[in-house]
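WARN  no MSA supplied for this record, continuing single-sequence
INFO  ligand: nicotinamide-adenine-dinucleotide
INFO  echoing inputs
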Amino acid sequence: MRRPLPSITGRPVVITGAASGIGRSLARRLSRLGAPVALADVDEAGLHETAAPLTGPVLTRVLDVSDAAGVRDFAGEVRGWLTRPLAAVFNNAGVALASTVLNAVPEDDEWLHGINFWGVVNGTRAFLPILAEQDAGVMVNTSSVYGLLGVPYQSAYCASKFAVRGFTDALRQELRGTGVRAVTVYPGGITTNIARNARFRADPEGRGRTKEQLAAEFEAVTMTSPDKAAEVIHRGVDGGRARILIGPDAYLFDALARITPTHYQTVITSLRSRLGGRRKDAR
Ligand SMILES: NC(=O)c1ccc[n+]([C@@H]2O[C@H](COP(=O)([O-])OP(=O)(O)OC[C@H]3O[C@@H](n4cnc5c(N)ncnc54)[C@H](O)[C@@H]3O)[C@@H](O)[C@H]2O)c1
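INFO  complex generated
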């Protein structure tokens, strides 16, 4: 018989990448609804900004998620801080970069994989023992729509997010029959700092655009606010979803990856130019 799924609302959670964007919105939403929140990020100032308005219990920790020993220490600290079972761990921290495969700089790719993939693995391995002992709780790992299909100039990012998807899917199968769940989150474009914080050496299309111009172009096509993303993630986890898609673009990309697994880029390019044309007409 399937066990009823307990809501995470009002119960303790861990969130990485909580100094900005989706992680900050999740922290503020869940705290407002009564959850004690343990927040980690490399950005100390941003972390304190996230925590400042919270009125409930908060633990903050400056932490690089690519540092496995540091993440294990954090899990030990959280264990001592908990007064009730841990409801969920959001392995959310992530970074981006833009480059052609031809001009990829290995150290940039390694930096990104260290955070986007190994950060998720480190968080999962450090906190899973707590959830396993409780035989309850949810491991929520953030992939991306770029973990559903490949996109030009995003080879490292796509590879890291496909890896998160594979890792979390495998974990979900291992956890069958236990009280612990594994959830994968696939955000579409969310209006956050991800593109402004990205590593950038040169316009990968050779059109001479600056990082700021590329970030502005990214933000112009995002469809979802970080607060809305946090709401969708929260509702999805409480609703027992194993995969959570965020935004209409995520549903479109998910469908395209299945319907036209090798030609989706043609459809996306044509849709973007039509929508771009309409936006210009509307101005
Ligand atoms: N914004 C989008 O359109 C989008 C789309 C798909 C997936 N995502 C994913 O959502 C997650 C959240 O990103 P966001 O959009 O809120 O971006 P964001 O840049 O606003 O927030 C990411 C946070 O991660 C933190 N971080 C970076 N490196 C870290 C490290 N080594 N250790 C700990 N924290 C670190 C940053 O300081 C920042 O606070 C990421 O995994 C990202 O890949 C975002």
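The beta strands are 13-16, 37-41, 58-62, 88-91, 97-98, 137-142, 180-187, 199-200, 243-246.
INFO  checksum written, moving to next record
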